[in-house]
Design a protein that fits this description.
Elements (H helix, E strand, L loop, with lengths): L9 E3 L2 E3 L6 H9 L5 E4 L12 H9 L4 E8 L5 E3 L11 H5 L11 H4 L20 H8 L3 E6 L4 H10 L7 E4 L2 H10 L4 E6 L5 H9 L4 E5 L5 H9 L3 E5 L4 H9 L4 E4 L2 H6 L1 H12 L1
Parallel strand pairs: 3-4, 3-11, 4-6, 6-7, 7-8, 8-9, 9-10, 10-11
Antiparallel strand pairs: 1-2, 4-5
Helix pairs in contact: 2-5, 6-7, 10-12
Length: about 280
C-alpha cells in the first residue's frame, strides 16, 4: 500500500501523521521508491573519485544515481563550497601549500579556498580539481536530485542562496543539527528537509524529527530495526539509510522497506536494484 493512501491526522506513539501536500522533490522520490530503494551517491561517486568534487558529482550522474549527496560549508566571506570536514587538511593540499595544519574552511575566503587542489590526494589523475561552489555543484548534478548536507553555515544564508539559484523546489537539504533544520523550515517551507541521525531511533526522536519540518528520516543503517522502519512509514515519512556499500546490506535495507540508500558505490548498488526491487516490493506491499 502506498504511504500517500494512508496519511491521516492522528497520533501514533506520540508521532503525528500529517496529510500535508507533497513537495515536488518528495513526490519524485515517492514515485521512484516502489521500484527499489532510491540510490543516493554519497559525496558523489566517492569510491572512485575525490569526494565532493565536480568529477565525483558528474560521475554519479553518469552512473545514473537518482540522488547525489554532497556536503557544504561557508567560507570566511560567506560563499558556499563543498567540503565534508571543518578543515581542508584531509582532502586538499592546504598543509603543503600553506605550511600549517588545521586550516579551517571558515578561515579562508572563497578566492583562497579555490587555490587549493582538492583532487590530487585521491590520485594524480584528479590533480587540479577545486573545491566547487554550491552553484557549480547544482549545475553538475541537475537533472538528478541534489542532496545538500549542511556541515556548517547559516540557515538564512543557505535559503537565500537557493532562492537566488532558483533551486528551492529542486533540492533536498539535510543536517544533523535539528534546530538548524527548524530554522530553515521556518524561513522556507517549500524546501524538502532530511533529519540525519544515528543510534536507536525512538518514538520521541521520531517526533522531534517531525517538528523540524523534515519529510525524510536519514539514519545510520546500523541502528535501524524493522520496528523503527515501520514507525517511520506509519508517520508518513520517507526513510533513508547511510552508508551502505555491501550487497547484503542493500538487500537488507530493501527488505525492511527503506526508501533511499546512501552509498559510495552508486554503480554497484544500481546494478543490484533488480533483486532489491523484489524484496522491497514485498516489504512495502
Amino acid at each position: 500500500m502506498r504511504i500517500a493512501a494512508v496519511l491521516k491526522s492522528c497520533l501514533v506513539q506520540g508521532i503525528t501523521i500529517l496529510p500535508a501536500q507533497q513537495l515536488p522533490v518528495e513526490r519524485l522520490l515517492r514515485d521512484a521508491a516502489p521500484d527499489g530503494p532510491v540510490v543516493v551517491a554519497h559525496r558523489g561517486a566517492s569510491e572512485q573519485f575525490p569526494e565532493n568534487t565536480l568529477a565525483a558529482l558528474r560521475a554519479a550522474v553518469a552512473q545514473q544515481a537518482t540522488v547525489v549527496e554532497f556536503d557544504v560549508y561557508q567560507t570566511k566571506d560567506g560563499a558556499w563550497v563543498l567540503l565534508h570536514d571543518a578543515t581542508v587538511d584531509r582532502t586538499t593540499d592546504a598543509v603543503a601549500k600553506l605550511g600549517r595544519r588545521d586550516v579551517r574552511i571558515d578561515e579562508l575566503t572563497l578566492a583562497e579556498a579555490r587555490t587549493l587542489d582538492a583532487g590530487a590526494w585521491k590520485g594524480a589523475a584528479f590533480a587540479g580539481e577545486r573545491l566547487p561552489t554550491l552553484a557549480e555543484a547544482l549545475q553538475a548534478v541537475f537533472p538528478a536530485i541534489p542532496m545538500i548536507e549542511r556541515k556548517g553555515g547559516d540557515a538564512a544564508a543557505l535559503v537565500q542562496e537557493l532562492r537566488r539559484l532558483d533551486a528551492v523546489d529542486r533540492v533536498l537539504v539535510q543536517a544533523f543539527d535539528w534546530p538548524w533544520l527548524e530554522a530553515v523550515h521556518a524561513a522556507e517551507p517549500r524546501l524538502l528537509l532530511g533529519a540525519l541521525g544515528s543510534k536507536a531511533l525512538t518514538a520521541p526522536q521520531l517526533a522531534a524529527a517531525q517538528r523540524t519540518g523534515a519529510r525524510l528520516v536519514h539514519w545510520d543503517h546500523k541502528s535501524i530495526t524493522v520496528e523503527a522502519a515501520a514507525a517511520v512509514h506509519r508517520a508518513g515519512l520517507l526513510l533513508g539509510v547511510y552508508t551502505i556499500d555491501l550487497d547484503l546490506l542493500l538487500l537488507g535495507a530493501a527488505a525492511i522497506g527503506c526508501d533511499l540508500v546512501t552509498t559510495n558505490r552508486p554503480a554497484q548498488v544500481l546494478a543490484l536494484r533488480a533483486p532489491a526491487r523484489r524484496v522491497h516490493g514485498a516489504a512495502r506491499g
